[in-house]
Amino acid sequence: MAASQLAPVLSSKPLLLSSWVCPYVQRVRITLNHKKVDFSVAEVSLSSKPDWFLKLSPLGKVPVVTWKTGQAVNTVYESLITNEYLEDAYAQPAMMPRAPLERAHARLVINRFDTKFIPAFYKVLRSSSQEEAHDASKGLLEEVEFLQKSSDPQGPFMLGAELSIVDAAIIPFLSRSFLLQHYRGFDLNSHLDARLVSYLDAALKHEAVRDSMYLVDGATDYRAELVVAYKGYGNEPVDYFQ
Q1: What stretch of H or E contains 168?
Q2: Which of 38, 105, 121, 218 has the highest CB neighbour number within 10 Å of its CB?
Q3: Could you tell me the end-to-end alpha-carbon distance of the chain, in angstroms, rounded to an integer?
Q4: Are strands 72-77 and 64-69 parallel, antiparallel or unpaired?
Q5: pLDDT single digits (tens) 38-67
Q6: Is 193 exposed, middle or buried (0-12, 13-18, 19+ CB in 10 A)?
Q7: Which residues are annotated as catalytic?
Q8: pLDDT mean over 89-111
């Protein structure tokens, strides 16, 4: 599936405006997959955004889910908001707890991950000195500790036995931790406790997660392609943790 400059034909079937490399898109794909939504995909070149895409994506970003109701064009964007929408629109299987307090806990974990873990992840990846990399890694490890304390002790997923939108928010980033080791020599996985190791393993084996990791233009090695795609963040590999 190559990126197209041609505008897609919209219908009542949800269309995901996507970019294979984007972890925010992967969040939405996991949810769509798990809920077994019948959707189609339009791959978008973010380096050369077509006009039709900018009309559907107010922020010029992916993911966007769009469809038509009669002649009206509907769009939902921003990954976390989109996943909340999908939870409301496609009730089964549920990916949020029913109890209000548990739902609040889920949202707090997602918010902390979005505002703390992700910035720390990219600070390590973009670091340009040993001191900067080590300082950034301390913040990232604090967030790993928070995840460990927040996870259901029985698992296998973050909130318990079933995949949730918390997992959809976390896994696309936690599973990219190998990029930190490749570009900056920081082995995040070695700092995960047994619970998070088993969590990551269970999540990556889940069908909805596996099917969210796709490639375009005939590529076959997902991890290798991500390494190439993330060179703009990490530049040349430098081991700041040897």
Answers
A1: helix 165-174
A2: 121
A3: 40
A4: antiparallel
A5: 999 999 988 889 999 999 998 999 999 999
A6: middle
A7: 22
A8: 97
Per-residue b or e along 86-119, where b marks 16 or more CB atoms closer than 10 Å to that residue's CB:
bbeebeeeebbbeeeeeeeebbebbeebeeebbe
Contact 226, 179 (CB under 8 A): yes
pTM: 0.95
Helix (H, G, I), strand (E, B) or coil at 134: helix
* Residue 208 contacts residue 34 (beta carbons within 8 Å): yes
- How many other C-beta atoms are found inside a 10 Å radius of the C-beta of residue 137? 22
Question: Tens digits of per-residue pLDDT, 164-214?
Answer: 999 999 999 999 999 999 999 999 999 999 999 999 999 999 999 999 999
DSSP per residue, 189-236: GGG--HHHHHHHHHHHHSHHHHTT----TT---HHHHHHHHTHHHH-S
Closest to 175 in 3D by CA, of 42, 29, 14, 3:
29
CA gap 140, 132 in Å, rounded: 12
Strands (E), 47-150: 64-69, 72-77
CA-angle at 221, arms to 220 and 224, nearest 5°: 145
Q: Which residues contact 118 (CB under 8 A, 6 or more apart)?
A: 173
Rounded distance between C-alpha atoms, residue 110 and residue 100, angstroms: 15
